[in-house]
Amino acid sequence: METVKIISIIVAVVVVTICCFVAFMTTLLRESSSKSSPYSFSRCQLWLWTLIICPAFVLNWGFKNTNLPQINQTSLILLGITIGIGLTAGIVSATQKASAKPTTLLKSNSTTTQGFWIDILLDDNGQFSVGRLQNLLFTLIYITIYVSLFFKGRMEYPSFDETAYVLMGISSGGYLIGKGMNK
User: Fold this and answer.
1) pLDDT one-digit tens code per residue, 95-117
2) What are the extents of the domains in the chain?
3) Is residue 140 within 8 Å of residue 120, measured between CB atoms?
4) pLDDT score recorded for residue 59
5) pTM over 0.70
């Protein structure tokens, strides 16, 4: 195996290790800086795509583009969508916190987690959210497709078509609208 390929594998493993270490040892995936606060759906989604695309970037460089690292439009759009969701969800949460009455129970104000899956599938009022479930399922489906196509193509980035982005946008929009409607 060539030196660049070995280096790219090592760097990809280090990137995954760092991403996992930071996520599990800090409050990166939580609603607030407390280790017992609920998990944030949008932060977890952004972390997942980062966990997938960053090592893919390094492996693509090592196996396909040894001169200069490259990234494709699909990867940038996927990261852009999740960054947009994260920022919008953060703005909605901050607005809700600022305008909430002291008696209003918002999950983002909660100090206690109910467990990872419950936290990310319940809305800010503690109700099961179909929008969150749908967004989670499509995220997991597209991550599976992305990873399988990446390795099937021998470290080449997959390209999704416009309908995939529309579906992800609709699913993400449903989650954000549901989040915005919680009071």
Assistant:
1) 887 886 655 555 555 668 899 99
2) 3-181
3) no
4) 95
5) yes
